[in-house]
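Figure 6 in text form: structure in, sequence out.
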């Protein structure tokens, strides 16, 4: 059997995200940083919206998004527009309306606000939502942070910290989204970070129908992406027939050792 095919089969066997023999719907929660971040995994969110209860938490208000093409100034006007775009995106995917934590875009890392105050608010508000929703699965950014954006890394780190702090890792399956090198090269304009394929233990496939919903969700974010850019993005998605996204399940080795 060719090595490449063997790798795919092995990854499919290892896939445990969002799969169970229990027919009862689960609660799946994506914890991301900005309005539009959900487009990184929107085909998967659309897929599981058909069988499970899927929620999206957006940590920041997105007020410093790049909108040169749209001519929208940073601030309250952009916040309102991006909130509506996020609602539109969730509707297209078929998931619940976005839950906004309304922290300032930049989480205090860009000099616009106090980092420590923002981090403390993020922990308090995010934990409240986790306790309220009681998710079975959480998906967030891994250490590579997708594009490496500081907000992405911070949201992923804080989510992980809370599950460890509250001893929730056995109650909630935590997954990090990520990219392999081939995907990063396909989307060079995004400057995606990537990991070795062998570092992922979960592969989720999605249908053309799921991808169509994802592409509709992408088109909601008109303030962030010019039409020409969205057209090229969606064309690239459609030309990729693999319909696969990679995830890494967080796992704890609880064996107590005396030293390294």
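Output sequence:
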């Amino acid at each position: 059997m060719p090595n490449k095919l063997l790798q795919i089969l092995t990854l499919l066997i290892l896939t445990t995200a969002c799969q169970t023999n229990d027919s009862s719907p689960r609660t799946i929660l994506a914890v991301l940083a900005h309005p539009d971040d959900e487009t990184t995994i929107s085909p998967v969110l659309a897929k599981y919206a058909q069988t499970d209860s899927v929620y999206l938490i957006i940590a920041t208000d997105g007020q410093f998004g790049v909108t040169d093409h749209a001519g929208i100034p940073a601030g309250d006007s952009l916040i309102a527009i991006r909130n509506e775009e996020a609602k539109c995106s969730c509707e297209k995917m078929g998931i619940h309306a976005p839950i906004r934590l309304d922290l300032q875009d930049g989480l205090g890392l860009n000099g616009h606000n106090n980092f420590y105050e923002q981090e403390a608010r993020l922990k308090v508000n995010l934990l409240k939502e986790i306790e309220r929703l009681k998710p079975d699965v959480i998906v967030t950014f891994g250490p590579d942070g997708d594009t490496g954006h500081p907000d992405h890394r911070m949201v992923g780190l804080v989510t992980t910290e809370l599950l460890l702090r509250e001893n929730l890792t056995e109650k909630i399956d935590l997954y990090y989204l990520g990219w392999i090198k081939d995907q990063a090269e396909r989307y060079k304009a995004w400057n995606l970070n990537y990991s070795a394929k062998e570092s992922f233990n979960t592969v989720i496939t999605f249908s053309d129908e799921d991808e169509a919903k994802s592409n509709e969700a992408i088109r909601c974010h008109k303030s962030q992406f010019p039409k020409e850019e969205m057209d090229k993005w969606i064309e690239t998605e459609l030309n990729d027939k693999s319909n696969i996204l990679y995830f890494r399940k967080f796992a704890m080795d609880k064996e107590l050792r005396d030293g390294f």
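Caption detail: Strands lie at 27-32, 53-60, 99-103, 137-141, 173-178, 202-205, 244-249.
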